[in-house]
């Protein structure tokens, strides 16, 4: 067990839960150590001095002692802000929780992955907080995080012939996309329509830092989501609690059934 004292890091408060009578365990995504759980002693006492910096969806700079294996400790925070809209809106809350849950499943406490992905997760929450279509932000994170789960589809060209200009479909068994000439090789391809495929490929390469807004119909957003649900179910097999809640909240299934057979 190694305790790194007096460490400064960027962080986003992921969740907190009661611990003993007066204490809390607060999970924070940090940019240097990944997801760490902090033991906050006396947190439930009135006027507790760290109360404001451990509110849900707070983010900023933190100081503390990081434990490699067990619980870490928080001393103070500065320039702490909160994603207010996410905090106040139950739907945005669900989307943001899912992004953080997905990140946790992928990054855990891996320092290198944390340094690579912290900024993207932070930016995703920022965009959700600003009101950019949260379904698309979640889809972008899902597509781009596939590689962290050992699934790294090649979205740019056909897995068989390298063709970059064609109609494409996604093939799980080929681990990428197939051009129309090679669809016959995989009868179990996902049978995605051209528009959904176009946006999956487009979103796989989009830079969240330069993204300002997304102009996609709800129907297309949902089709993209459903395609990613299939890929995640079949190829990743991940269970993130927030996803179930998100699905229930939005009744995607119903909307999808209604919209599936009509072309746009
Ligand atoms: Zn091909």
UniProtKB/TrEMBL annotation:
InterPro entries in the cross-refs: ARFGAP/RecO, DNA_rep/recomb_RecO_N, NA-bd_OB-fold, RecO, RecO_C
Species this protein is from: Ligilactobacillus ruminis (strain ATCC 27782 / RF3)
Any single biological process term in GO: double-strand break repair
Domain DNA replication/recombination mediator RecO N-terminal: 9-82
Protein's recorded name: DNA repair protein RecO
Similarity section: Belongs to the RecO family.
Keywords: DNA damage, DNA recombination, DNA repair
Role according to the record: Involved in DNA repair and RecF pathway recombination.
Top-level taxonomic group: Bacteria
Name of one Pfam family that matches: RecO_N
GO cellular component terms listed in the entry, alphabetical order: bacterial nucleoid
């Amino acid at each position: 067990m190694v305790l790194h004292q007096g460490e400064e890091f960027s962080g986003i408060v992921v969740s907190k839960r009661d611990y003993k009578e007066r204490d809390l365990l607060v999970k924070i995504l940090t940019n240097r150590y990944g997801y760490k759980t902090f033991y906050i002693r006396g947190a439930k006492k009135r006027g507790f001095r760290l109360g404001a910096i451990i509110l849900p969806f707070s983010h900023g700079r933190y100081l503390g002692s990081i434990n490699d294996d067990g619980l870490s400790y928080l001393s103070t925070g500065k320039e702490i802000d909160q994603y207010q809209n996410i905090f106040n809106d139950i739907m945005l809350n669900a989307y943001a929780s899912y992004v953080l849950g997905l990140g946790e499943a992928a990054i855990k406490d891996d320092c290198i992955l944390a340094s690579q992905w912290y900024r993207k997760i932070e930016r995703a929450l920022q965009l959700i907080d600003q009101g950019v279509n949260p379904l698309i932000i979640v889809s972008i994170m899902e597509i781009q995080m596939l590689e962290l789960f050992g699934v790294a589809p090649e979205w740019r060209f056909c897995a068989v012939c390298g063709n970059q200009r064609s109609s494409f479909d996604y093939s799980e068994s080929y681990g990428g996309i197939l051009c129309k000439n090679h669809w016959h090789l995989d009868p179990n391809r996902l049978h995605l329509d051209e528009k959904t495929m176009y946006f999956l490929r487009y979103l796989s390469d989009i830079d969240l830092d330069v993204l300002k807004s997304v102009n996609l119909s709800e129907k297309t957003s949902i089709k993209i989501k459903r395609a990613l649900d299939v890929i995640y179910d079949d190829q990743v097999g991940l269970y993130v609690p927030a996803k179930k809640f998100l699905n229930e909240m939005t009744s995607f299934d119903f909307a999808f059934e209604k919209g599936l057979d009509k072309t746009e």
